[in-house]
C-alpha cells in the first residue's frame, strides 16, 4: 500500500503540474447572473411584484372565508361554503418564501454595500408585510431561522413573529430617514410603488404599524389606542398617500413558478382568472341595502358584475340590442335555497349560443315545472311543453346554461367576476383595451359580454397595499372603542368618501384609457348618486353610529383583502360577544351546506372554535418536510381542527394562545 | 467545434482503412468445435489467442471462429474444465477434460477492460454472453438482465412503447432525485451515457412532460451487437472508474470479426404484444355525486351516480382503449477478418407500435467495429450511430394538477356510462359533456382527443465512437491510449391542439420544440507492466483520464396559430414566440493505478488508488483520493483432499469511492428578467447553491467465496457486502422557509448491505440431451443513516401519488420507504396506539380518524429477488425458460386508489352502495362506536345534517385516504421468458449457402403468479430514476405487456 501511494503521488505531481487548473474552472454558469451580481434597482421591482402575487392569493382565499365571494371551484368552495378545509394552501406560503423572501437578504446586503439605505429599508418593509401576512393565516412558522443557512428551520410562535415584524418597521423608518450615499442608486430607479418618494414610504411604515397594532384589540394589556392614533397621525393623510401596485394588460409573461400572468393584478390572478367566483349575497346586500336603507350604493355596479341579456343580433351577427343583466349575490350564508337544491359547487358556468339552441328539460315536480314555465314566459323565450318535458329555445346571441337540468337554467342570474387579460383570454382577437370576459370567440365576435368584472380584481386594477380609507376606518374603530363617537363618526365618513374618491379617480382614468368603451362598469360613477348615497340613511348619522356601521363600510371598501377576515376574527364574526358592540357582521354564519365538522369543532357561535381562525400549514412544504419542527411549537398542527385555532393576536392572553398549542 | 468535426472525420475514415488492410492481412481463420470429454458440445468456452487480448466464446454447438496466425497458440478455458493450449489450425476439434481444481481457468472482463481470471478476483463479477442475452432479447438490453444477475434489480417503467427501465446494483446510494443511482455503462472502453433525460418542462412545453414515457439511453445500443456483458457490482471492482463508479459498472463488449471467411448474419423477429392486465371498473353505477344534503349532482366525472338501468348503454372504455402492439425487428451484420485485422458491421431496425393507439417506438442502429495491427501497435475503433423515435402520450397530469393533460388518468376514471370514443363534435371541436360545469380550462380532455390531436414525440440521434491504440513495448510492458466520444441530440416536439382543456392562453394551440444535446469526450492513457518470478506474478497499471461532459438545451415555444391548420412557429406572431437556452459543462481529471500480486495461482492481492479533480466541486474541495484493496485465496490449493469439493476460494475486499456534484450547484442563480412597465425585475431561482460542498464518499467491503463440487458440475458463489455512502450531496425537499424549494446540502448517509448467492449446475450432460440450470438469489437492505436534525423524512421529490410519497427514513429507516396516512388505532394508557387495536372513529366526521403525521407505511425494497434459468438441449432443439421471483417489497396501488376516489373501483360496490358501517372506538371518549350509514337516511354529525348517500361517498374517501388499503407486500413468480429454438444447421446439406439457420419462438411475461391485485407489480410511476425514485408506486400507468415472438436467424 505504501509503495502504491508513492507511485500514485509521483504521477499525481506530474499530472497536476501538467494539467491546467484553468481547464477545471468551468463551474460558473455562463448563461445566468447569480445572486451577488444582481442590482438592487432590479431586485426591488421583483420583490414588489411578487409580493403582490402572494398578497393576491391570500386576499382572494381569505375573502372567500370572509364571505366577500362565493366560489364553486372545488378548493375555493371549501373556503366559501362548505368550510371543509382547503388542501391547496401552499401558494401564499411558497410564493412568499421562494419568490419574495429569498431576495430580502440579497437586497439588504447588496444595498448595505452600496450605502443604499433606502433599499435596505424596503427590505425591512417587505419583511414585515410578508411575515405578518403569513402570521395572519398560518399562525406559526419558521421565523428566526427562516431565510438562513439552516436547512430545517425551527418554528416560532406568533408572538415572536409579530414583534419581529414591528421591529423591522422601526428599523425601516430610521433607514428611510437617513440620506443615501451619493454613489448609491436612487430609490426611484427601482421603486414601482412610490416612485422613490421616501415620505410615502415612511407613511406606509406608520400605516402598517397602525394596522398591526389594531390586531391586538382583544388583548387588554397590549392594545394601546393612543399609540395607534399616534401612528395614524404619521400614516397616509389623503388618497395621494395611498400605496398601490399599478397593473397592466400588455404582456403575456407568466410567473416562472405557477404560470399565472405576471404584470396583472395579484387579486385578479386568483379571484377573476377563471369563471368560478361570484359575489356572495352577504356582500351584495351590503351594497344594495346597507342599514336596511334600501339604497343602492353607487359602487355596486362597479363591484358587482353584469352580463348581456336579451341580445338581438343584427344581420352581420353583431349585437344590435341588449340589456345588462346585473348579477345577484349567491346566497351562501342564509337559507341558500339555490345551493341547497343543487349542491355547494353547483352554480353553473354560462355558455354562448352562437345559433338558436334548443334544450329539453324534464321536470317531474309540477310546481317546479309551472314556475319554470312562468320564468320562460317572463323572459320571453320560445318554449314548448310536452308532459314533463319543457323544450326552451335560446336564441342566437343568448348567454345560457348548457345543461338539461332545469335547476341550473336560472344560474345566468349569478354573473361570475371573470375578466380577461391578454394572457388569459383564450380569444386571439381580444385586445389590450378590452378586459371583459366573453364566453367564447363567437361571443366576442358578436360583442356579447359574459361578465364586466369587478373593480378590484380586473387585470388592470390597482393592487391596494395600504390606503388612506383603511386609515380612516382604523381611526373610526379606535375612537369608537375609546367611546369618542364624534371623532369616530368623522373618521367613518372620511373613510367612505376616501374610498369613493379613490374609485372615482381610477374609473375616470380607465375611461380615459378606453376600457369603458366595451365595459360601462369601468366608467365613472354618477356624481349625483354619490351625493345621494352619502346623505341617505345607508350612511349612519352622527348620533346613531355603531361599530357594525364602521366595520361593514370598511368591509366594502377593503373588498378583496385579508384585512376583512382579520377584522372579522377580532370581532368573532357574528357572535356578538366582543365588548358592547353587539353583532358586527349580522347575517354572516356557516352555510347550510357547511361540512367542516372536523375542522370547526365547536357548536356555539360564541366559542372561538366555531369559526375559521387560520389555515393549516401547507402539507408538502412544512407538514411533510419539516414536521418535527412544526410539532415542536404546535402539537396540533397536523389535525384538521387547527383550522379553528386562533392565532396569537386573535387570543385575549398568552395563556389562551399557548393553551391551544399545547 | 472544429475539433469535433475533425475527430468525426477520423472516426469515419478509420474503418475504411481497416477494411482495406484486412484484405491484405496474413492471418487465417481458425474454426472448430469444442466438446466435453463425453462428446457433448460445450457452449461458453473461452478461446483466446495466447499473448493477446483477442478471444471469443463458443456458441451453443460448441463452435468458434477466430483469426490467428497458423501455428499460434490458442487457449481453451471453461468453468469446470482443464485449460488446454493448442496450436491453431484451420479446422479444429477440441475435447476438454473435466478439470482438477488447480487447472481452473475462467476469464472475465474487469475494470478498464482488463481480462482477468475469475479466480484471481477479490470481488464479485458476473458475466453474461451474447447467447444468454439473446434468449429473451429486449430492445433495451437492461431488460435482458432481469433474473440473471444476483444483486441487480431492474424495474421497467411501463408497458408503453419505448419505455425505459432502471437498473440498480446492490441498492441505490444517493437519495436525491437529481442523482442517478444507476451503474456506469462502459461500451468498448468508453463511458456510455444511460440517462433517462426528461428534456422538457411545463413552462416550456405547456404540458407536464415528466408524466410520460421515457427511454433510458442504453436503449440506443443494438442488443445484437453485444458480445458479452460484465457486471462489476461492488466498489472494489469498479473503483478504477472513479467518481461515477459508486453504483457499479456494466461493461459491454461488442462483437468483433473473426479471422477467416466473411460471415453475414440476418435475424428477423415479429413480436405481438398485449396488455397483461387491465384495471377493472364497476359497471353498476353511473356518473354523478351526492351533496351533503343529498342533492344529486350529475356534473362530475366521478361515478358515484345513479344505478345503471337496463336501458342504459355501458361502454368498456378501458378495454376498448388498448390495442395489440406489434414489432418488426430486423438485424443484419457482416463480419470477417484476416491475420492482422478484423471488422464487424451491423445494421438493425426495431419498429414498434404500442398498445396505446398512436404511440410507437422506432429505432435504427448502425455499428462498425474494426481492428488492425501494425507490428507491435494494435489500433481498433468502434463506431455506432442510432436514431430512435418515440411517439408517446401523457399518463397523468403534472404536479400543479393541470386538468385534462393525462391520457391514462382520464382512461381510468371515465364513467362507463359515457362513450369515451365520442371525443369531437362534427365541426372538429372537442365534445364536452359538462360544458355547464366547467370552463374549458377546468375540464378534462378526452383521452382520444389527446392521442388523436396532440403530439408528443422525440427523436434521438446518437453517435458514439472510440479509437484505441495499444503499443506493446516489450512482452511485459504495454501502453494503451484511448479516445472516446459519446454524443446524442434529442429533439422533442410537443403540440397541443386548439380547443384542448388547457389554460386559456394556449387554447388556440401551442407548439414547443426542444433540442437537447449531450456530448462526452474522454481521453485515457494507461500503461501495464507484468512480471513473473519464482511463483509470483506482479502487475502494475498506471493511467490517467480526462472527461469533458457538456449538455445544451434549447427550448422554443409559441402559441396561438394565426391560420388554423398550419402547425408551425412561422404561423405564430413574433410576440408569442419564445426561446430559452441552458447549457452545462463538467470536467474531471483522474489519475489511477493498480497493483496486483499473486502467488502460485493460490493467493491474489490487488490494490487500486485513484485521485480525481472534479470541476463541479468548490476549488478547495475538488481534489480527492480513494483506494481499494482486495484479495483471494484458493484454499483447495492447500487442502486438496476434501471429498466432492473440486475448487474452493474465499475472497474479501475493501474500497472507497468518491462521487462529485452536479454542475453549477455551488452558486445561487437568478431568474430571467421580467419587465413591468418601465421597470425590470430580477430575483433568485428556487434552487440555492452551496459553496461548501465536499464529495460524497462511499466506503464498502465485501466477502465471498466460490465452491465447486463433483468435478465442477455444481458451483456455488456467495457474496456478502456492506457499503456506506456518506456526505450525501442532495437537494432534498425541505421547508420553503429557507427561501428555496431546493437547497444543495451535504448531509446523510446511505447504508446498503446484502447477500448474493448463485448456484450453477449441469444437471444432465448426455450427448443428445443436456440440462443446464442456474439459480440465483439476492437481497439488499437499504437504509438511510443520519440526516439533518429535525427533519423526519428525506423526500426525493415533491410528487405525491395518491396518499403516499416516496421517502427515505433517517436514522436507520428504509431507503425505499413510503409515507402516507393510516387510520388511527385505539390507544393504551400512555396514548400509544395498540397494534391491531380497533380503529378510532372521529365523532366530528363520523368516519375513521386519520393519522396525518405522515407515518411510514411501507418499504418498497423486496425481501429478496432471484431468477431460475434453465436450458434444455435435445438434439437440435433448445428449450429455455427463465423464471424470476421476488418476495416482499411494498407496492402502492395508486390506480386502485384513484378509482376508489372517483367511484369506479369495484370495491365501492360493497352492500350495493346502500350502506357502509364504521366500527371502532370514539376518538374522543374511547367508547365503542358503531354506525351504519344508509342511503336515503340523514345523520346528524357534530351538529350538521348529512345525507346517507353522501356519507357513503365520504366513507370511501376516508377509505382511500388510508394508504394501507392499497399497499401490498408483493410476491411474484414470473415466467419472464420461454423460448424454443430449432437449429437447422445440422440438416442443411448445402452449407455453402447457409452456415447456420435457426428459428425461435419466444413468449415473454406469459404468466405471473402474484398476490398483487393491481395491474402489474413491476412498476415505477413517472419513471423516476434518481434517489429513492418512484419504484413500487403503481399510479395510472400504461399497463405492462406480455408478448409472443417468432424469429429466424440465418448466417451465410
Keywords:
heterodimer; A: 24 helices; 13 strands; globular; B: 1052 residues; mainly beta; disordered N terminus
Task: Describe the protein in words.
- The complex is a heterodimer of chains A (662) and B (1052).
- Helix content of chain A is 43%, strand content 8%.
- Chain A is built from 24 helices and 13 strands.
- Chain A has helices at 2-18, 21-24, 40-65, 74-82, 91-100, 104-114, 117-138, 158-176, 198-214, 225-234, 266-271, 281-288, 300-303, 337-342, 366-379, 441-446, 468-482, 485-513, 527-535, 547-558, 562-570, 619-624, 627-633, 654-661; strands spanning 69-71, 141-142, 155-156, 243-245, 277-279, 306-313, 319-326, 351-352, 357-362, 383-386, 389-394, 399-400, 463-466.
- In chain A, the strands form six sheets. Chain A has a three-stranded antiparallel β-sheet, covered by helices on one side.
- In chain A, helix 7 (117-138) packs antiparallel against helix 8, helix 10 (225-234) packs antiparallel against helix 17 and helix 18 packs parallel to helix 20.
- Chain A starts with a helix and ends with a helix.
- Chain B starts with a helix and ends with a strand.
- The model of chain B is unreliable at 1-25, 100-104 and 398-402 (pLDDT under 50).
- In chain B, a hairpin with a 2-residue loop joins strand 13 (184-187) and strand 14 (190-192).
- In chain B, helix 8 runs antiparallel to helix 9.
- In chain B, the strands form 15 sheets. Chain B has a 22-stranded antiparallel beta barrel. In chain B, strands 10-15-16-13-14 form a five-stranded mixed β-sheet. In chain B, strands 3-2-5-6 form a four-stranded antiparallel β-sheet, with no helix packed on it.
